[in-house]
Structures are given as structure tokens and as C-alpha cells.
Specification:
mainly alpha; 158 residues; 6 helices
Length: 158
């Protein structure tokens, strides 16, 4: 607490409602109205100082971040990684397509009993199922693949 010689007396005008609320809080905390008002002022000053410190620290962080990581560098790294992912997906797509066409060739060699129309229908239905599978959301994939009865039923329809 400050010494009496460090104190300054000042007048503050309050509304009746404000004064009533301050009196209630002062009574609850067992302090005088003046002490409660001083506490509110100290809290307000602390909050204002904290806000100024946060703004100051934020500006330093922003400055340091942009000094270390230039936007052009970030864009270059992001573009490099995006290109890398695109190339990986293209490789995956190529191998998937090769596997798909190899499967068609194997089925054609094994399926001598059926007609060409039956084979075409089976192929179209398989492609349709593949498209349906690709349209599923991530959260649906696991349950779809674990439902073996459904998978067998779909395969039987081919």
C-alpha cells in the first residue's frame, strides 16, 4: 500500500447504479467503497498494461517471423511440396491404371465362358463401383471396407 504522502485525492462521479454495484462488491469482500474503487482501477491499469505488452510482443514476433521467413520463401517451399505431391499422385495413378488394365487382361483370359456383353457389363459395373468408392468421404472408408458382407454382395453382382 502506498504511503499517505504518495496519495492524491481525486473526485469521481458515479451513477447510482454503479455506486450500488460497487457497494455490494465492497460489502461482499469486506472492504470500503474507496478500497473497492482502487482495486477496480488497479485491475484496469493491469489489463491495459497487459494489452500493451501483448501488442508489443506480437509486433516483435511478427517482425521476427517475417525476418526469418519471407513470404516468397514460404510460397517457394509450398509450391515445391505441392509439385512433389502431384508427382507422387501421378505415379500412383499410373500404377493403379496399369493394375486395372492388367486385371482386365487376366479376366479376359480367364472368362472364356461368358459372352462379350457379359464381360462388358461386368467391367462397367466394376468401374461404377470404383467411382462410388472414390466418392466416399474419409470417415466412410474404414466402415465400408470392414463390411465384408456388403463387399461380397457387390462383387457377386459383377
Amino acid at each position: 500500500m502506498a504511503k499517505k504522502s504518495d496519495r492524491i485525492i481525486t473526485s469521481v462521479y458515479l451513477t447510482k447504479e454503479m455506486c450500488g454495484e460497487i457497494d455490494k462488491l465492497a460489502a461482499r469482500e469486506n472492504v470500503s467503497r474507496n478500497e473497492q474503487i482502487r482495486r477496480f482501477i488497479e485491475k484496469g491499469l493491469d489489463i491495459e498494461g497487459y494489452t500493451q505488452n501483448v501488442d508489443f510482443i506480437s509486433s516483435i514476433i511478427r517482425q521476427e517471423f517475417t525476418a526469418v521467413y519471407h513470404i516468397e520463401d514460404i510460397k517457394a517451399v509450398a509450391e515445391q511440396q505441392t509439385n512433389r505431391l502431384a508427382k507422387m499422385l501421378m505415379k500412383s495413378g499410373k500404377i493403379d491404371a496399369a493394375g486395372f488394365f492388367l486385371l482386365i487382361k487376366v479376366l479376359m483370359n480367364l472368362a472364356h465362358d461368358g459372352t462379350e456383353d457379359q464381360f462388358d457389363q461386368m467391367l462397367n459395373e466394376a468401374v461404377t463401383l470404383g467411382v462410388d468408392y472414390m466418392q466416399k468421404k474419409d470417415f466412410q472408408i474404414n466402415s465400408f471396407l470392414q463390411d465384408t458382407d456388403n463387399l461380397r454382395g457387390l462383387a457377386d453382382k459383377l
